[in-house]
Amino acid sequence: MKDMQDDNQIEQLLQEIGRISPPKNALIRGKNTVMAQVRQDDSRRLMVKEQSTRAPIARALTIKRFNYMPIIALILAVVLGGGGTVAAAQNDLPGDALYKVKLASEAVAEATVTAGGAAAELNFKAKLASRRAEELQALKENLAAVKEDQKSEVEARITQTAQLLAARVEKMDEQIERLAQKDQPRAAEAATRLAAYAEIMQGVIAGLQEFEFEASRPEFSEEFSERAVGLEVALAKLKIKSEVAQEEVLGRHASKTGLENAAQGRVGAAENKQNAVEKMREQALRKIPRIEDAEMLAFAKAEFERRDAFYRDGAEKTAQARKELEQGNFEAAIKLAGEAFKLFTQFESPLSKDVERFKLKEEDEAFKKGLLMRFETPIVPPAALRAEAGVSVEKDDFAEAEGEIIFKEEGVIMIAPAPEAPEPSVAVSPMPEPSVIADKDEEQDGKPPLNLPLVKGEKEIDKNGMDEKKKSATPSAEELKMALKKAWEFYLIAAGQQSRMKAKDMAADDSENTLHAAKVLLLRAEDLQARGEIGAAKEAMRSAVEMIEKVF
Amino acid sequence: MNQQDFSTPVSCAELCKPEVFERLYDHFSPKLYRYSFLRLSSPEDAEDVLSAVFLKFWEYVARQEKEYRAGKSSGTITHVPAFLYRITRNLIIDRYRVKTRPLSLELLSEAGFEAPDKSGLTAILKAEHALVLSAFDALLSDERDLLVLRYVEGVPVKEIAEMYEITENNASVRLHRALQRLKTIIHQDSRIEN
């Protein structure tokens, strides 16, 4: 080996060995292992970060739980609305001085709310998640307002808040499943509410997505919209999961009570869902041939085919369920109806977002219809909500206005008859517990952290709502529950419409505030209802419905 | 942090971002795999070491970041490459055992190593390379380690010295001796062959 006489020669050979590249598969396998851990830790770390302010407080509180109970109650009251620093903090955005106080107070409330059972805990978590969504919206507005040199900071906060939200959504996703399996008390209710929250948040995120981040760097805009799409899909999944969980719990619960009634209810629900899906289907069939882009057309067609299989299976199962019901095989009918319901939800699963992202944008009119179609249960038009107790609504304003849509309105909506005399404000109403005050304050303190000019509008609305508080007959809890459900649906429609309008810069200035105030009122109505304050709950709901009507 | 090679001090907060960590993986994984492979002569072991290194590093970074937020740490890694090579080396030592197969061109080829261009591995690695590789087996563990680090992976002497916790001077001397040993072995081998 005479040409390897000097060190340089060997060095060079060694360097050449350094130029060969290792097997890509091995590197990718390693990467998958490593990055899975990294991502998992990262999402956990974000959760911990959020909670890190909580740990010491929560621990301190649990040492001598008894002594501190009043404090906990106070903090709880304050998180739900209240006074002082913690209350002031509730409006803060990520990065603001008191934002940590806000997170800490939430964490304390979260740590203590578990006493209410898994269902209550989940509801509270959903509420906190929706706060993150609201913060995102407010931050987005801030981004447009701040100076150039502060933009990157706001961008970082948006990313962080989005991550917090994503982590929460993921957690709730797990919890709703557990909740449904374990058949916790009030699980169905919690699932219904979670579905509502998910829908609200989805609306907010959808609005963010369509917003052009002109004010930000293009990289950020791109990164964020990717994140937002992920979030939106996760939320849509959460919503569907909640709906399915609700169905499951109701179905199971039903089997313990009147089987026949239950079977009828389940089959009816499946049929309703089928009708709703049918409408979506027709719409899609009309729309797809009009797509011009070949790639998009192929995609939409394939998507439709895939989904249609769900629909066909579901329709078959529904028919079978109906048959079983008529033959008196109630258990089989319930089972089949449940399966059909699930299949129908798959038809309208979050992947439809992909179609939208493929720029399958409808006309405004069409969109509104599509949105309305998404609710399997009858939709309550304003006219119906105004209806007096006992009035069954058969035809409605909406159907007329929209031309095509026919609502299978069957609900009897219990709204108090027209008031005679205004009642004193809630603060002096015969409910001395601090929680009532807390609830009242929520309209001011628990509102999403919006920009200042908006606050004024909201307060006005708030006042309106209060003035219009009316005396009422006392509807039963069951009726109230029904009415509340309808009110939520009404709200969701309005919220969905509003977020789209907003994305197109067409929303009325204060509609956002009005809607938020309405949401707060609805949540409060639910809380009051849970506490058995039926009269007060109804009033809150009434005011909320009035506000929503204004938005429409 | 814009630099691609992580050669300047990096904060743990930055490294904690999944996208940054991913970039770090992409940058270092080929080097560290090759290094492990040449030391352990086994694709399975090299692969194990590779993910173990990054997981260990990730743990460290996450811990540092946490301590940094608690004010207990500077939260910065002054020299990421040296740090990674040190973890790798320690893990290699943990796994080092009597090899079932000697290092060879075939082994590299079987493991799926690829030439930088499309000319094929064997066309690049000629008889001399085969000789060098087989001579590797006759080297002491440390000698092989030093040579791979310095010449194959191009780690500066200064960093090698840090890894070994010896002076730079000492490192140079040991490197020189290792190179001489390799040369002697190659010459013996080629004499036998001839």
Given helix and strand content, the structural type of chain A is: mainly alpha
| Largest interface, C-beta closer than 8 angstroms, per-chain residues | A-B, 33 and 51 residues
Give the uncertain stretches of chain A in residue-range form. Answer: 49-68, 350-474
CA radius of gyration of chain B? 18 Å
Order of helices and strands of chain B: EHHHEHHHHHHH
User: Please, how many helices of chain B?
Assistant: 10
* Quaternary structure: heterodimer
Overall helicity of chain A: over 70%
Strand content of chain B: under 5%
Strand content of chain A: under 5%
Q: How many strands, which pairing sense, and closed or not: the largest β-sheet of chain A?
A: none
What spatial order of strands do you see in the largest sheet of chain B?
Answer: 1-2
Mean pLDDT of chain B: 82
Overall morphology of chain B: globular
Q: What percent of the residues of chain B sit in helical stretches (DSSP H or I)?
A: over 70%
What's the total number of strands of chain A?
Answer: 0
The separation of the N and C termini of chain A measures: 90 Å
H-E order of chain A: HHHHHHHHHHHHHHHHHHHHHH
Radius of gyration of chain A: 26 Å
Largest sheet report of chain B: 2 strands, antiparallel
- Topology, number of strands of chain B: 2
Keywords:
heterodimer; A: 552 residues; mainly alpha; 0% strand; B: 194 residues; 10 helices; 71% helix; globular
Question: What features would you describe in this structure?
Answer:
- The complex is a heterodimer of chains A (552) and B (194).
- Chain A is mostly helical and 552 residues long.
- Chain A has 22 helices and no strands.
- Chain A has helices spanning 7-17, 24-52, 54-63, 65-79, 84-89, 99-113, 117-145, 151-182, 187-210, 218-256, 259-287, 294-327, 330-347, 352-357, 364-373, 382-386, 397-402, 434-445, 452-467, 477-503, 511-530, 534-551.
- The N and C termini of chain A lie far apart (90 Å).
- With 194 residues, chain B is mainly alpha-helical.
- Chain B is 71% helix and 2% strand.
- In chain B, helix 2 (18-40) crosses helix 4, helix 3 (43-69) crosses helix 4 and helix 7 (127-136) crosses helix 10.
- The model of chain B has no long low-confidence stretch (mean pLDDT 82).
- At the A-B interface, helix 1 and helix 2 of A face helix 2, helix 3, helix 7, helix 8 and helix 10 of B.
